[in-house]
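Consider the tokenized backbone below.
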């Protein structure tokens, strides 16, 4: 596209939705857009949300909402003509996600044009999905050759957020062909007073004040290994009852949005496991409540079966909070190499190993993990690095 990135870029970002409940990519989109604007670039955002959706108004940046339906595939007849008209005023289009209309619609609008587009799959080509949901994978196969395959094939580049994601993407579908690029990905360092943020969180959840707790923060979803975590936590209680006595009795915090039936199923599981009083469900945390949770926790845990990046992992590291990860979180190698946390298999045994190994550490060892966690974030996962890497790749092509 350009041989140099000395001139400001005009970028158009297209996503299915800016609903914060849809996960970490929405937060990163916001943070990277703000950083790019600080650097003098122009960033516009378009979504398939309904224009009256509350999260469109509350996003914090101008959003063109082109949709008419709140859920599902997101087809809207407005996207293609709007994008064809808009494209003449931008240098590049970056679209996020697969299997919904924003990517196929971008291909329909821009194929054969002089305006390049780039795609972030955000882990949606991970072969875990075809093992976990074989019927859905069959449905995707019927759709793949004439839609997503073409959108990826004709993109100027397909952006992967780590090397692990790039390699896994090759294993889901034949006819896979694209120009691959690995870009930095990250989030903003938290602002505000850490002590005040801790106080805000503890005042909101008095039952956790002064207690040790392990923090899960993210979507409450079966792919995240939430059931494994509850079973492993119960196993920790059986094997090490001393952790669950006295005023610092260990707790587990399960923070995040999710489908009510699944959350209810998990809560019933805590009753069966006899750990219900030890598990807290504060819902989705934002702002100082979120940062206060990170700053108050003993460690962050994510035993996910499939996780492309894990923005919450980067946020935990930014707060000098060590992370306990499954080896299905695609950035586990980077975290392990920098010493920012512990890693195990995405199984009940592996999750129990994470918890028990962490709790067995001496205080000075935990302090060293905190130092390494902060170093890991600054070395690899800042929003400035993410913005710079995106601009560099767009300009190089």
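A designed sequence for it:
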């Amino acid at each position: 596209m350009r041989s140099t990135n000395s001139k400001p870029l005009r970028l158009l970002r297209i996503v299915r939705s800016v609903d914060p409940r849809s996960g970490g990519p929405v937060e990163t989109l916001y943070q990277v857009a703000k950083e790019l604007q600080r650097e003098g670039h122009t960033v516009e955002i378009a979504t398939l949300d309904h224009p009256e959706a509350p999260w469109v108004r509350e996003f914090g940046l101008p959003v063109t909402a082109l949709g008419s339906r709140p859920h599902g595939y997101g087809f809207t007849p407005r996207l293609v003509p709007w994008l064809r008209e808009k494209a003449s005023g931008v240098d590049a289009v970056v679209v996020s996600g697969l299997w919904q209309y924003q990517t196929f619609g971008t291909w329909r609008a821009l194929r054969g044009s002089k305006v390049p587009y780039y795609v972030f799959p955000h882990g949606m080509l991970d072969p875990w999905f075809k093992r976990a949901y074989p019927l859905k994978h069959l449905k995707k196969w019927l759709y793949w050759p004439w839609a997503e395959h073409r959108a990826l094939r004709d993109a100027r580049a397909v952006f992967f957020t780590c090397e692990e994601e790039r390699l896994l993407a090759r294993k889901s579908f034949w006819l896979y062909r694209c120009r691959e690029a690995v870009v930095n990905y990250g989030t903003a360092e938290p602002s505000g007073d850490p002590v005040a943020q801790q106080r805000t969180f503890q005042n909101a959840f008095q039952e956790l004040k002064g207690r040790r707790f392990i923090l899960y923060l993210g979507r409450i979803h079966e792919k995240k290994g939430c059931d494994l975590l509850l079973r492993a936590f119960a196993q920790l209680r059986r094997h090490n009852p001393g952790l669950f006595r006295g005023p610092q009795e260990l707790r587990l915090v399960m923070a995040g949005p999710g489908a009510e039936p699944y959350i209810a199923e998990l809560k019933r599981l805590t009753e069966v496991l006899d750990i219900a009083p030890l598990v807290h469900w504060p819902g989705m945390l934002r702002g100082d409540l979120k940062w206060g949770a990170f700053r108050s926790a003993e460690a962050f845990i994510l035993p996910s079966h499939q996780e492309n990046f894990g923005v919450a992992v980067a946020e935990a590291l930014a707060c000098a909070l060590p992370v306990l990860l499954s080896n299905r979180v695609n950035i586990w190698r980077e975290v392990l190499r920098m010493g920012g946390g512990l890693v195990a298999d995405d199984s009940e045994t592996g999750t129990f190993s994470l918890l028990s190994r962490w709790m067995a550490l001496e205080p000075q060892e935990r302090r060293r993990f905190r130092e390494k966690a902060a170093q890991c974030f600054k070395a690899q996962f800042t929003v400035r690095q993410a913005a710079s890497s995106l601009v560099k790749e767009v300009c190089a092509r």
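The longest helix spans residues 363-380.
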